[in-house]
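INFO  loader      accepted 1 record
INFO  loader      residues=181
INFO  predictor   begin
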Amino acid sequence: MPHSADDEGTPANTTAVHDLVGALAPGRPASPSERVLLDWLEAHIALQSLLDHDGVAGWKHRSAYELVAAHGRWFTPAALPAQVRPLPERQCFANAAATEREHPHLAYTEGFAVAADSPVPTAHAWCTDADGHVIDPTWPEPGCSTYLGIVLPPNLRPREPSNWGVLEAPDSLYPLLRNGL
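INFO  predictor   done
INFO  writer      dumping tokens
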């Protein structure tokens, strides 16, 4: 059963979070912001396990947290290239989608991040280049930020007029949770 707990009562899904620590870099401990993000993700998955109900029985993932823990990867912050313009804060989903449209060599990416000036993880969207570098038109100083997410397939992008994140909008999230990527 994919959503069961082990003999110590740890939800099986948190194994994916522990695997993310190893994906940082062999032998390198997690940075403080990476640790905060991992702990936050693990806490959400554990809480969901405690509140488990049959409404998602048979689904590949019970939440966006599990989806990102299972399929997400770490991305390296980089300075915003001169050809990419900064866009308004608090509109990351629309900003990342617009940046990808203007720069087709970039890939729309969604997941969770910790901004350089905040200790709080948040749902976030950004673009990535072919080398896995973050191109974030929303956050002005991404250098010390932490990014964990999924490069989403081209058919999954925020839709106007709401521009909700793919991992936040029920019409796009539920099929991903039900069927996987």
